[in-house]
């Protein structure tokens, strides 16, 4: 098994592979089989403090390295991730469940962030400001903010770390990462490759724990930590913001979504169906930017539903290690129960079932790709972040109506629009209250573009040149006596 080459079963603090002082461990379970694949340390709050202090000690020297030095190390890290992509993908599939080809794509996406931000490290420019007097000169510089804590999710357990660690380290910060309890192995594998790349002791630390509330509290309130970055649900994000506010920490939040996917009558049908399928069913629908509500204009509605159903029913369900698998397991039994409950209640409220709608025979954590129509905006399933392989299709009549319905949610992460009318492209894209809009495109995330939401979907941006700003402070210097 290739993944054995990158498997680590210890936390990583101050450059040392560390077991819990208590001797406690927690299992890592393959969601496709229910079989334990590894154990990792169950660290306590004192060990989290140790990681924070190690990061703080390392920051004193790391912040003084040149941008070129940091870029060189990040490029080495990028190359090692790329060289080990097959092993990392296998590890990701085994601990998270997604099909191996999706896992390989995520690993390469992860690598791209280290390459991109290594290059951006050399472009964190300040500015010279025209002065208001002859005797002064005004300028700004950008400096690393300090120790960063990163709390990352289970659905993209390697790329979500890269989107935080790469810009933080490129900026000259140090970082303490708390991966999700279900998927700690990818974080530890990244730390192993960082060590091999020559990243100094204490610059990256990984704290594994079965007690996320207590450890998370420490990562959000410890005064040494200057920045908190979180990806996860909106309710948890609100709690983290409240904790970070106690010491006025900088915070970036990538939170929940309820993405509309809008198909107008003039859209090309086949690309629209393909885009909706790709956006909805990637990672078994366990994606924050995946399609949640499919709005189809009346003139094309019946054709779209028929073609969409044909594609949904082609999916193969099974272990992600099987090359024929399209849909892997959900992360745990609770996710299956939540998904099934949403479907059951929608059907009770009048939704019509076209495909799926129940747990699959492949195993306890597998749920059939599901298609529901006759869904109304007031149903629970229309308001919830689905995070499962469920498609809900809504009919609409005109542009103004669908914009109002699409915006009728507290979330504002991603939205999708399919149309061939260039005027409509501009009008709808500008009116949608979302941080990201895909036009005739269902897959929008990459390292080059700013990723993030508005309203209750988040604060800040990851990726792109803007992704460095969340890890730096802008300092103004006024020089007098010139």
Question: What do these coordinates show?
Answer:
The protein is an alpha/beta fold and 482 residues long. The chain folds into two domains: 2-255 and 456-478, Aldehyde Dehydrogenase, Chain A, domain 1 (3-Layer(aba) Sandwich); 259-446, Aldehyde Dehydrogenase, Chain A, domain 2, CATH 3.40.309.10. Helix content is 38%, strand content 21%. It is built from 14 helices and 20 strands. A seven-stranded mixed beta sheet has the order 14-15-16-13-12-17-18, sandwiched between helices. A six-stranded mixed beta sheet has the order 9-8-7-10-11-19, with helices on both faces. Strands 5-6-20 form a three-stranded antiparallel beta sheet, with no helix packed on it. Helix 9 (269-281) packs across helix 10 (298-312).
List the helices and strands and how they pair.
Layout: E1 11-13, E2 16-18, E3 25-29, E4 36-41, H1 45-62, H2 67-83, H3 85-96, H4 100-120, E5 127-129, E6 137-144, E7 147-151, H5 159-171, E8 174-178, H6 185-197, E9 204-206, H7 212-221, E10 225-231, H8 234-245, E11 250-254, E12 259-263, H9 269-281, E13 291-297, H10 298-312, H11 333-348, E14 352-355, E15 370-373, H12 380-383, E16 390-396, H13 399-407, E17 414-418, H14 422-431, E18 436-439, E19 458-459, E20 472-479
Helix pairs in contact: 1-7, 2-4, 2-5, 2-6, 3-4, 4-5, 7-8, 9-10
Keywords: Oxidoreductase
GO molecular function: succinate-semialdehyde dehydrogenase (NAD+) activity
Protein name: NAD-dependent succinate-semialdehyde dehydrogenase
């Amino acid at each position: 098994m290739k993944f054995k080459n990158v498997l680590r079963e210890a936390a990583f603090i101050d450059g040392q592979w560390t077991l819990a002082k208590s001797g406690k461990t927690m299992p890592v379970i393959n969601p496709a089989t229910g079989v334990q694949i590894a154990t990792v340390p169950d660290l306590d709050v004192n060990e989290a403090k140790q990681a924070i202090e190690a990061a703080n000690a390392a920051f004193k020297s790391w912040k003084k390295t040149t941008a070129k030095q940091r870029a060189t190390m990040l490029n080495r890290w990028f190359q090692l991730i790329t060289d080990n992509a097959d092993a990392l993908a296998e590890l990701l599939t085994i601990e998270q469940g997604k099909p191996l080809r999706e896992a390989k794509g995520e690993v390469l996406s992860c690598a791209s962030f280290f390459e991109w931000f290594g290059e951006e490290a050399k472009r964190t420019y300040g500015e010279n400001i025209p002065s208001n007097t002859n005797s002064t000169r005004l300028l700004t510089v950008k400096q690393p903010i300090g120790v960063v804590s990163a709390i990352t999710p289970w659905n993209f357990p390697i790329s979500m770390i890269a989107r935080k660690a790469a810009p933080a380290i490129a900026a000259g910060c140090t970082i303490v990462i708390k991966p999700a309890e279900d998927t700690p192995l990818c974080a530890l594998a990244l730390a192993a490759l960082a060590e091999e790349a020559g990243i100094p002791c204490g610059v990256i630390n990984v704290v594994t724990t079965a007690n996320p509330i207590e450890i998370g509290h420490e990562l959000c309130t410890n005064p040494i930590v200057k920045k908190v970055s979180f990806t996860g649900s909106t309710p948890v994000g609100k709690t983290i913001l409240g904790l970070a506010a106690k010491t006025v920490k900088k915070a970036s939040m990538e939170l929940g979504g309820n993405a509309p996917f809008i198909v107008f009558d003039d859209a090309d049908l086949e690309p629209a169906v393909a885009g909706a399928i790709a956006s909805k069913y990637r990672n078994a629908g366990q994606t924050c930017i995946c399609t949640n509500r499919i709005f189809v204009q009346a003139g094309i509605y019946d054709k779209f539903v028929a073609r969409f159903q044909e594609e949904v029913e082609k999916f193969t369900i099974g272990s992600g290690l099987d090359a024929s698998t399209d849909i892997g397991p959900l992360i745990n039994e609770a996710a299956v129960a939540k998904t099934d409950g949403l479907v059951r209640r929608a059907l009770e409220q009048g939704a019509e079932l076209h495909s799926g709608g129940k747990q699959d025979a492949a195993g306890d954590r597998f749920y059939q790709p599901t298609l529901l129509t006759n869904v109304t905006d007031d149903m629970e399933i229309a308001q919830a972040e689905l995070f499962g392989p469920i498609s809900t299709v809504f009919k609409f009549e005109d542009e103004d109506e669908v914009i109002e319905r699409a915006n009728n949610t507290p979330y504002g992460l991603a939205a999708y629009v399919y149309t061939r009318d260039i005027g409509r492209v501009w009008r709808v894209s500008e009116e949608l209250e979302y941080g990201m809009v895909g036009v005739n495109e269902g897959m929008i995330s990459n390292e080059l573009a700013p990723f993030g939401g508005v309203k209750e979907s988040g604060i800040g941006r990851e990726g792109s040149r803007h992704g460095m700003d969340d890890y730096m402070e802008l300092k103004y210097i006024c020089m007098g006596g010139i």
